[in-house]
User: Fold this.
Amino acid sequence: MGNITLGRYIPLDSPIHKLDPRAKIGAMIITLIAIFFPAGWIGYGIIFAAVSYVIIRSKLSPVFIWKSMKPMLLMMAFLMVINILVIHTGDVLVTIGPLTIYTDAVMQTLYIIVRLLLMIMITTCLTATTKPLDMTLGIEDLLKPFEKIGVPSHEIAMLISIALRFIPDLIDETNRIIKAQESRGVDLKEGKFSERIMAILSLIVPLFVSAFQRADDLANAMEARGYQPGEKRTRYKVLKMKGADWALIFCATAILICMIVLAYVI
Assistant:
């Protein structure tokens, strides 16, 4: 559980931390769109180089980024097995008994894995370099044009911000409950399948109780401070786009255009 880093803000003094949250969110969306274009390994290499440069500039530790990827390793292994069993096109790569592995199955899996890793790197960089309050303000500003068709931009931004804010807290609470259960003799790693299911239930129940208690405390605190959804609110902090912010949007757009060109050329 401690490997999950999504939602954790790392307070560092870097140029990426100082960028406008709207620019970072916009650049993230543009880059995520670019990832899904079949631009081949050259395109993915360009995106990886750009994302790596941003991570270096943000002064984030490679270990921190790696921890954000570790929870996805099991899913990647599962995708590999499914593709090997389902995809039977391309050249025969290797034959192991009755199992035949084709090149298309391996390549398709590698493409999916690279896309997942790039998406995790981008989203982790965004949440690690953007304060929850700034994230809320940025999402609200980006959704504000949709208010004309009835979209509650502030409420949506608040929900997303709260969800991201409570991910680390729920992870810490889960680790605390695991240690408390283990101190009482509950074994979550070994034993029969039925025993492990019961052990997991002993973890889930107190976690849900704690989550609902936190939600109730947060709701009471917001009501005590006079928070009213839908009411017009003033801001203490006003976001302003600067030259570096527009440069980030321009670079992300250039990457998207490059991926589109490569997708048609390759």
Residues 153-229 form one domain. The chain has two domains: 1-130+240-266, 153-229.
